[in-house]
Amino acid sequence: MHVDENDVFWMVRVKHSAVEIDFDSQRARLRVRDLDVFDDHDLANSLTQGLGLPNPPLVPSLPPIKGVPPIRAKVSFDVEWNGAVDTAEIENSSQKFKGSFLSTGATISWSAEQPGFSFQSDMPPDPKANLLSVLGRERNGVFFA
Predict the structure, then answer these.
(1) Residue 128 — φ and ψ, nearest 5°?
(2) Structural domain span for residue 24
(3) 44 assigned to some structural domain
(4) pTM of the complete model
(5) 60 cis-preceded (ω within 30 degrees of 0)
(6) How many CA atoms does the CB half-sphere of 105 hold within 13 Å?
């Protein structure tokens, strides 16, 4: 399903055991195997569920984006955050938000397969390919106090 009953998209539930977090040790991991997803080909087809964009509304000079029906696929990924390179404490009482945030190193290994195609990211993942990663612990709204 592309959009769930709460109008949430691009998010899926994972097993509780897929997530490991030790904020005090500046480490976290998300490991998912063989997750059933739709391959939507591109952003336009993901947002339109395969209809494409015959006339891109924001930039009329762009060529139309052909509709491509979604294809069932499976993905697996392993994301590891490790070691703080910077920290930040943020509090905004007027917006009822506060949190502790760690800028960290991170690596991602990722694979996908669908009929006639498969992809595997570089192994082992290159930590230098990471531009920005953040772990955070926050409270907001009714949980702010």
Answers:
(1) -70, -15
(2) 16-36+76-143
(3) no
(4) 0.78
(5) no
(6) 8
